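Reviewer 2 asked us to include a model.

Predict the structure of this chain.
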Amino acid sequence: MTLLAWARGRPLVLLAAGAVLFRLLMFLGRGDYIAYDEGFYLLLGRSLWAGDGYHLSGLRHVALSPLFPVLAGGLSRVLGDLVWSGRIVAAVAGGLLVIPCWSIFHRIAGRRAALLGCALIAVMPALTPFVVPYWIRWDLWVGAEPVLQLFLFGGIALFLKAIDSERLWRWLPAGCVFSLAYLARPEAIIPAGLLGLAGALIAVRQRRASLAVAVVAFGVAFAAVAAPYWLYLHDVLGGWTLTGRGVRVELAGRLQGQGAGAGDPALIIERMLWGDDQTPYLRNLYSLDASGTRLLSPYWGLAPAEGAPAADAPAADATAATQPGAGQPDPPAPSAAPSASGGAQGRTIWPRLVFYGRALGIGIPWFLWPFVVAGILTPRKRAFAWGPRGIVWRRRRRDLRELLSAGPLAAASVVVAAIIAVDPRTQLFIVPMLAYYAQRGIRLTALGIERSAEQPIVRRGFIRGLAAAVAITLLLGINARRLYLSVAVGSPHHIVGAENRQVGESLQQWVE
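Predicted model (structure tokens):
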């Protein structure tokens, strides 16, 4: 068997290996730059594997989820380089994303759809944002995002396989993998919960007791993997919670204090991202507590006394009132949200919808959006027909698979934007599914052009192949330009990162 024949028979192997190597190549343009949360993830991993606990700045940490620190810190014990360990974890996780996506797309629409959809994912610029943000405008990678995407789509792929099977044991790995996605970033619990609810509804409608038991097993497997993290959060916070990020939301009002809506975390983040107003965000993070000896924001960690429930908050405020200067509060921050043009206006739905559209536009390049829309709006061929009793659905199983794949992701995208903030980075998990609809739109458009000609000028399928090749080439061109500019031109981020590394190396000579 020749190498070419072997490659043709194993396109997924080549796609996965190529995607991993491509992401490692993109990292060559990053230099010494370390993103904001990226450094904190790495410090957490180093502290954990050194036996010092899940600590940041000597305090127990709850805001950032543990899976990426565990993986990066563990790999650093082997490689001896903490920064590149985190980068390798991100590159491998991002490249292997094509494997669960292949399984999902193949079950929904067949091999050709899986091949083109995964090829788009392999080179999608929003999924390979590993050069410096100076050249991509947004810091789309700060640590856990590729790990979240890998296990989130892995969970969906295993769920689809389980729901097509009568075997109970198939539901256990689906629940475990979804739990790993949740341990990478907490928003993964939204699609996991929605899929569990969908499985329960299908079991009730079809009156399948075995399926109901399987859904329970799915939930038990999820809880079993997540239980150690929940116990840790309970130990630190003094109560049960799904994520430690809620503490930051809970105390935001105290950090900003005055003015309706001034302490709204979503408002603060959106003002920074879309209105270029960093003052409330920085004030939220770097305000001192009443003693003036440490930072108030729980983002940096919680002291042992802070593990009490939120009911202790009034007492903390009363203590603050007795401190020097407590009678002279800061002026209230304006209760406003940035407008679509960057100004400040009242927080209304319309600007947030504009931000949401712009966030998705950063995830998918503009030239693919017509195909994404066409792929979403165009009904599946022969999806339904008229029968003696009305509409009869055809390919019902494939339609259900598509709904179970895209529906929870779309719902999670909207919930994250509405509750947390409209942030392009937190919308990256929807990009692989949008790539599926992009490939469908490309293939349908090319097929329409081929069928419109009365006499075929070229061989059937040539236009579809050409359109796919052009789309992939354009995506590769965007990545190549960013990599070239990062390596050949550089940016202030490279300079600051190199200087920070030199300072750290100098400090290592004097500080233990």
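DSSP finds 21 helices and six strands in the chain. Residues 385 and 391 are 6 Å apart (CA to CA). We have added this to the supplementary material.
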